[in-house]
Amino acid sequence: MPSASGAADISSPPIERERSAVSYTYDNIKGWKNMRLLRIGRGVYHDVRRRLPYYCSDIRDAWTYRTVASIIRMYFVNMLPAIAYTLDMNRRTGQFYGINESLFSSALAAMVFSVFAVQPLTIVGITGLISLFNYTIYDIVTIYEPSIYPEFMCWVGIWGAIFHWIVALCNMCDYMRYVTDFSSETFGFYVGTIYISKGVEELISEFTTKGHIAGFMSCMVAILYFLTIYSLEAIGSSTVWRPGFRGFLADYAYVIGTIFWVGFSHIPGPLQSANVTRVPISKAFYPTQPRGWLIQFWELDTKWVFAALPFGFLIMLLFYYDHNVSSLTAQARHFPLRKPAGFHWDFFLLGCTTFIAGITGIPFPNGLVPQAPVHTDSLTVYDTELRIIPTEEGEGSEIRRPVISAVAVVEQRISHFVMGLGIIGTMTGPILVVLHTMPSAVFAGVFFIVGWGSVGSSGIMRKAIHLIQEDRFVQRDEPLLKVRSRKVMLWIACQLIGVAACVAISETIAAIALIPFRVWIIPKWFSRDEISVLDDMTADNKAVLASLGGPPHFPGETHPQESGLERRYSEQKRGVSRQRAGSIHR
Amino acid sequence: MPSASGAADISSPPIERERSAVSYTYDNIKGWKNMRLLRIGRGVYHDVRRRLPYYCSDIRDAWTYRTVASIIRMYFVNMLPAIAYTLDMNRRTGQFYGINESLFSSALAAMVFSVFAVQPLTIVGITGLISLFNYTIYDIVTIYEPSIYPEFMCWVGIWGAIFHWIVALCNMCDYMRYVTDFSSETFGFYVGTIYISKGVEELISEFTTKGHIAGFMSCMVAILYFLTIYSLEAIGSSTVWRPGFRGFLADYAYVIGTIFWVGFSHIPGPLQSANVTRVPISKAFYPTQPRGWLIQFWELDTKWVFAALPFGFLIMLLFYYDHNVSSLTAQARHFPLRKPAGFHWDFFLLGCTTFIAGITGIPFPNGLVPQAPVHTDSLTVYDTELRIIPTEEGEGSEIRRPVISAVAVVEQRISHFVMGLGIIGTMTGPILVVLHTMPSAVFAGVFFIVGWGSVGSSGIMRKAIHLIQEDRFVQRDEPLLKVRSRKVMLWIACQLIGVAACVAISETIAAIALIPFRVWIIPKWFSRDEISVLDDMTADNKAVLASLGGPPHFPGETHPQESGLERRYSEQKRGVSRQRAGSIHR
């Protein structure tokens, strides 16, 4: 189990933390005060009050090497998919959203959340979700009146912001405590699948827009880029070379891979003449369209203003799940976090960025599912320890096994902030030109690696591998052996149906339905003991649950803190897993 | 250690085997009779006498499923590189050697060696060596008189045959017993490197001959083909699914991969229109050039006949090492072989095939280095056993580890024979047409997979990985720890210099020099104990050494049977390794 004993020192008084951790709860409150919807702003207030004392340490704690490595890694992991989604969105919204809008949105989100958020670990930016959302609305609006698209989107943002604020003030983020691995793994798997298919789409579009030479070359580069990053990250989890050097390779895998393959694509000869798609850029700091940064939202007809209302509600619903789950996974149980979370306040803040994004005509940012946990991972100090298992074969033949433990997380605001500065820097002319050198094949490669990182390391995959494993080689103390294979299969099937539903509806709505499904249906199909092996809370840290009104109560189940046998077993045997290229415990 | 207890029953009397195993030796013989060069035909006689009693069992033992799997695998592993080398040779010898010549040569070799050889496990066919040899001579001959190339090559074959017979009759194959892992690993590594670079060459030639679309598509297909076969073979060595099913996937990896990717290359659209190079074919059963199958060698001028003599000597020298080493590795120590070897007789036979190949104008076949051990591997019955290592952590937490042991080898002639029939079948019209559907990218993929199989599983790689391993995770009973790292590095350096020398001279000559280097120089640089850890005999089976006049005597070293600590350690811990896609023991 991750030990927090070696953690970086936290400068606020522990008593304060203890006290505030229990102050936000409805457990022993009776009468109308127990109805959380009526306790306007209670969650937001407690979130801020709980975290504020740590603000200084959030800056002071940042002065470590981890922060530098994190900034570099996150710059790539956050920006490359954002740009890739923008390429898509740009094509399909009549060039309204361009690269400058995306960078502005990412930078805005990074600035606001790194400075004002309770939980600055949650990376906020542009997702595929918002790309899809934007061009779907574009398709609808252009049926009636193409010219009003900017103003209409602006009102969607304004309504969305209002709904965000209502949800945050009415303490409705509390329901996120019912998110267990069942839902978060399913969602992660779904997003990973979407990322991979998005990578394939990027490659196909090379064939249609740039011809066969560019298409085949892009396929080749994307595959090799994937293999490069995957290998470098795999070396980081191995035991070759010194810990420092292999850590360096893994930390800068994206830098090394990207520089190499971008350079490769420019080698004169067949490679250069393949004329692949490169990132399209426009004048630095200006909107892609000839317009000012402020949308004239007051010029929109009233009927359209109200037509935007349901879309505003929809964006809130999508973000409710997307943002909160990414925040939750960024604070998942295997990270030894010590500073408190703040879901209500952060969701309120998300309303603010949605508002700003709306009136400036940029895509709405929100919490990023694979990126947010990758951020925490990049800030985690991992220690590869030697575990010697004495065997009965006598001296010298004990078994030496590397066990990775998460010693501490460098919890601070600087990495998110500087990454944001980096994105602003990218908006300047010279760096835009550098960006223009990047072939879209590299983006496809990033989608593959981030997507596979999410799919391959998922619990669904782990359980599936357990199922196909030849029985006699399974360790006898493996907790999954306590559950009949048919039940494990049923569990995976439920999750995969959830993934399929998400793909079919192409939106997060289906993912939201996973929470009630888990709370009410699953306990009818699985026994208490089975659930304790198969499921686990996504975040069980007290500092996290404090913001959600304490641990959840599942009807008819054991106390959730007692579940997660499978996880505890795995951690004890092999240490924690890293959020890297699909590193599965085997 | 591999146990031979479960081996297929061998039908000849064990007493006979014992007696004949010791009958060919010079150890206790004095006077002129101790000079092996003067004992004309002694080795050949004993080879035949030793093996003849097993002839019936060589046919009877074949009726197992292993033989079927072996035939299919070897058909691909033998034929695809042969065809690929032919494409090259065809271009560079003025289209004298075409696909029909290559198939004929492979089929001839398979027929002759499967029926008449003492060791039918040694796969004989077309190598890159002979392709290089043929077009080098073509380049030389065309300076003087291009038209005589067929007759000149014919005389090279005739002289080569004569030298083969002399070497075989003078018992000179005996020196092969001095081949240890030092030389055979170096040679294997060299050939693997050449295979991989040959694959790259194939891909580059797509760019120059067929244009960029075909080039990039071929790169993509070759990489994916490699990954497909590699993954399928890796599954075969894992513990997922039932042993039968995962064995099936590994056995038919080439079939599955080849059918899939050949089909893929024909999908209408960008893939089909990429117009990649496919295997060029001509009329079935006829020579590529308008000529008869018999070369009119008697029409060549006498001066040219004698000019061919040194080349004949050269081909003998090349084959001496190439053929005997492939035979040796096909009978390497980790295969539990029970039937006796026969190096002298087989080399005599190689003289005969060289003669026939010479007068019919087809490339000279010889023993194939990566393919011969793959053949034995494909015939080996592996058993994945469960080893339970009790730990001191108490009940249920013992460690379960799969240990692969080689139970038996299905030693017979049928697999080689039927594979030869398959090649003859391939020479018929309809199958030639099927062959014509294969893109050259698939051949590049085969080169990658066979080459990496040879490089990745090499002892050089294993020692290198040991060196970069972080010390504390190395098992304390690892024998390599007994040798200082500097010495291990020196050992690898010697081997890599050997590889570099082979590449530089582009021929096997350098490889031959490895044997005296190992015998006289290495003992001066390494202590007896170090050598016992670092080196090992390539084949230590009594049945093999019997044909070479008994075990070798290295000046100033321990008895070679006592060396190979590293190998014995590894086998004891993890069982034997398979000759598959670079499966390294870690």
Topology:
2 copies of one chain form a homodimer.
Chain A: H1 14-23, H2 42-51, H3 55-60, H4 65-92, H5 99-116, E1 124-125, H6 128-144, H7 149-169, H8 181-210, H9 212-236, H10 243-251, H11 253-264, H12 270-273, H13 302-330, H14 343-360, E2 366-367, H15 371-379, E3 380-389, E4 399-409, H16 414-426, H17 429-436, H18 440-456, H19 459-468, H20 485-505, H21 509-525, H22 528-534, H23 542-545, H24 565-574
Antiparallel strand pairs in A: 1-2, 3-4
Tally of distinct domains of chain A? 1
Stretches of chain A where pLDDT falls below 50 for ≥5 residues? 1-21, 581-586
Specify the biggest β-sheet of chain A: 2 strands, antiparallel
Percent strand of chain A equals under 5%
Question: If interface size is counted as residues with C-beta under 8 Å from the partner's C-beta, which chains form the largest one?
Answer: A-B, 41 and 41 residues
User: Over the alpha carbons, how many angstroms does the gyration radius of chain A reach?
Assistant: 24 Å
First-last Cα distance of chain A:
17 Å
Structural class of chain A: mainly alpha
Give the tally of β-strands of chain A: 4
- Percentage of residues in helical conformation of chain A: 55-70%
Walk across the major sheet of chain A and give the strand order: 1-2
Secondary-structure element order of chain A, N to C: HHHHHEHHHHHHHHHEHEEHHHHHHHHH
Shape of chain A: globular
**Helix count, DSSP H or I runs of 4 or more residues of chain A:** 24
Q: What is the mean predicted local confidence, pLDDT of chain A?
A: 83
What kind of assembly state do the chains in view correspond to? homodimer
